[in-house]
Amino acid sequence: MKKIPISLQILFLFTPLFPQSVESSILSITAGEIKGHMQVLASDSMEGRKTGEQGIDKARDYLVNEFSQLGLIRPPLTDQPYLQEFPMYRSGWREYFFVQGIDTIRFRKDFLVQGNMPELQGDYDYVFAGFGIDEAGYNNYKGLDVKGKIVVYFIGEPKDKAGNYLTTGTRLTAYPRYEGKKDSIAFSRGALSTIRIDPSVTMSDRLIKSGSTYGSVNMLSIKPPPKKTAGNRNYVYTGIASSSRIMGIPAEQLNSIYQSMENGQKKFPLISGKVRVKAVRYPDTVLAGNVAGLVEGSDLKDEVVIITAHYDHLGKGEKGIRYGADDNASGTTGVLEIAEAFSIAASSGYRPRRSILFLPVTAEEMGLLGSQYYCSHPLFPLEKTFAVLNMDMIGRHDEAHGNKGKYVYVYVSEQDEKWLHETGVQALKDLTTDLIPEFQYKSTSQVLYGGSDHMPFEQRGIPVMYFFNGIHPDFHKPTDTWDKIDYEQMQETVRFVFTSAWHLANQDNDRKANSP
Description:
The protein is an alpha/beta fold and 516 residues long. Helices cover 30% and strands 23% of the residues.
């Protein structure tokens, strides 16, 4: 394949326009093609692209197929063509519910679960243990057989008439509301599990609602979980209303018992019975994958510029599929369009000096796990990574801009605010566009630039440019759909990212030499 001389490449770098075939590369990035990719990635069939579920596998296969059609090279060290696969460890429950009669009490709606336990399926005995305290002067377990049973107890500790806690005789409790001492007492007596009753309706409702929305259900990790031990058991957290349903007694009865015991009554009625439980975990591990494809460079091909975006989202929620069109089918589509543009340039004889690695990563929504894994297991040495360009949510307008003009925030990581900024300024000159980039810097940024996949690279000292359009009201909701994307703005943004990447790929080795 014909290669353009290095001297001409440098000339092209500093002239306002690219060679004609590279201009054709820019023009290959179109609103129409962008819309086509978006309609696939944010479709019903992708089911919100949640890591560990079927939808993200479909998205991965779509990206692999697109890379293959573009003729990208399989990077070294990948396990399969275009895939960097790795195990992730899952901590959540697929199902967890109690059945009492015809009443079903459900995880995330009526209660939360913490800790490690074997799966449960069947009918189990439960027993009520008051406040669950076992002290010489105050023992709720006297006469109770809890072996192999679920122990139900109230959070907290009763007080005497003077306002002192019964076990300490002071204003300091020996049993703080959310520590595990009571669970250890129950498990030491052979309990199977525990249910903590929070008598505060306000607190229990708030925590269950918060845990249902932001809790660790089906959370993933790239680190193996700690080994399960006898002291690391699970407990159910709930309020009086839901716990009374689990026990099959009126909530008024349970609340009356609490009031009596809170006022110093040591005796409480013996309440026991059976409850049906189904507690089934997700598989302990799930195979995840970053997608990776390469356009090889010329004289500096051992160095790499990475263009990345996360292709996962949040899957299905109670209100339907969270499509994640802007977050982040938009950035993923940007990677595909830029990969096509570089492929066109290379096949026309205008190969970049540095190699370009296209890296859609997984599990960003789980804590930047895909990009973290890459940085720990790079396909190219990190010291050979010249720069990283990350796109996340580049398809909409935030409240600060409304529908006014075309813009994109550009975060650059260097403290002195020079050479990456100048790269962006020069790249903009190669375009005929009304896009306005709003540059932000590590030392002065007032815009939210945390929480995306440039961060693991930046933390390792690799220069990054991060392209972002801000938060909008549909963020993380089912209403983040492909029809709300500003495709003309997105076209100009993706072209701008391409020209920025082109400049980075063709600059001299010494970054300081590229500064003004």
